[in-house]
Amino acid sequence: MEVIELELADKSYPIYIGSGLMSDQKLIQSRITGERVLIVTNETIAPLYLDQLKAALDGLDVDSIELPDGEQYKTLDTLNSIFDILLKNNHNRNTTIIALGGGVTGDTAGFAAASYQRGVAFLQIPTTLLAQVDSSVGGKTAVNHALGKNMIGAFYQPQAVIIDTESLSTLPKRQLAAGLAEVIKHGAMADRDYFDWLEQNLEQLLALDTVSISKAVKGSCSIKAAIVAADEKETGIRALLNFGHTFGHAIENGLGYGEWLHGEAVAAGMVMAADLSCRLGMLDPVDGQRLKNLIKRAGLPVAPPAELQGQFMTLMQRDKKVSDKGLRFVLLDKLGKARLVEAVDEEKLQQTLAAGAALVS
Questions:
Q1: Is 186 tagged catalytic?
Q2: Going residue by residue through the chain (361 aa), what tens digit of pLDDT does each one get?
């Protein structure tokens, strides 16, 4: 088992990475506050892992709720269904909420924990690659609004993140590829050596090679943990983790939540951000092509959907990263080095949008 410590001034916590951790009763119960537990999972994950987790919680008073599966259910109505079971079963401030599932489950359960009785303990047990390498780490919790992704939420850190890499064995290929988008993102924006390693080992990752997967999960969690430790509330460097997200969130909002997976939208968004970086004279086009090639090899989209032509500017204005100065983009100076750019040349931006449209026309 690997352990990464996410060091925060007032709330540090461990990220455990290993095989079979979902059955580790001693480990899981050591992170529980009180005697009451609510497991929040979804209808896809519950048949696979709910009984296994309940067995590890033997001796505690455990309730569970199975949410519908999909980004389109990351809503206030779903959040309210969690509050319903907490209240109906008289859960108090000593309750621990456990998120068992992917990013939607983790984000929604985390926001419920942040809100219920002004905050109860929270444990992340992510079962998708995207959740393991990204959304479970760092304390971002939220639900979506019809007009914007993750617009209603809170920063709320878990007691711990417990990553059982065995859970990836049941992950559909499309979900695996979507998770690899975030892995690629970490290398592209923060660590060129890691990006180089991903280029060399992508086929092993797609084949779920145990050693390669463990190294990727550890590598991405280490990058994200270091950035979050330096900037928990995203007032500075943490914003760099949004590489590809300004374009990507526009795709998700424009298509409707759940039509594309989050990682698929981020993948196309990274290609567009790299294109804009090249047009602004920041990024060597050779490096931009390397990024695009790696994303394509992972089986991910490299262009936005055709039906969003002409809508991108409006959709991007709804993004939560928009500042008083307007649109902000995370762009690349080179592979492994990103920076936040405001007041982007609109002509260059329109050229990037046109180039994306041309790829799907």
A1: no
A2: 999 999 998 889 999 999 999 999 999 999 998 999 999 999 999 999 999 999 999 999 999 999 999 999 999 999 999 999 999 999 999 999 999 999 999 999 999 999 999 999 999 999 999 999 999 999 999 999 988 889 999 999 999 999 999 999 999 999 999 999 999 999 999 999 999 999 999 999 999 999 999 999 999 999 999 999 999 988 899 999 999 999 999 999 899 888 999 999 999 999 999 999 999 999 999 999 999 999 999 999 999 998 888 888 888 887 666 655 678 899 999 999 999 998 899 899 999 998 876 665 4
Shared domain for 133 and 194, answered yes or no, is: no
In the set 31, 242, 264, 279, the catalytic residue is 242
Q: Name the region of 123 (left: φ>0; alpha: ψ -120 to 50; beta: rest).
A: beta
Is 224 labeled as catalytic in the residue annotation? yes
Expressed as residue numbers, the domain containing 194 is: 173-360
> Is 238 assigned a catalytic role?
yes
Catalytic residue among 71, 182, 252, 264: 182
CA 307/CA 310 separation, integer angstroms = 9
Active-site hit among 249, 264, 279, 328: 249
Residues 39 and 151 in one domain: yes
Q: Does the annotation count 140 as an active-site position?
A: yes
- Cα separation of 290 and 139, whole Å? 31
- Catalytic annotation on 262? yes
Cα gap 242→270, rounded to integer Å = 10
Is 118 known to be catalytic?
yes
Say whether 245 is catalytic: yes
Whether 33 and 115 share a structural domain: yes
The domain tally of the chain equals 2
Question: Is 145 annotated in the active site?
Answer: no
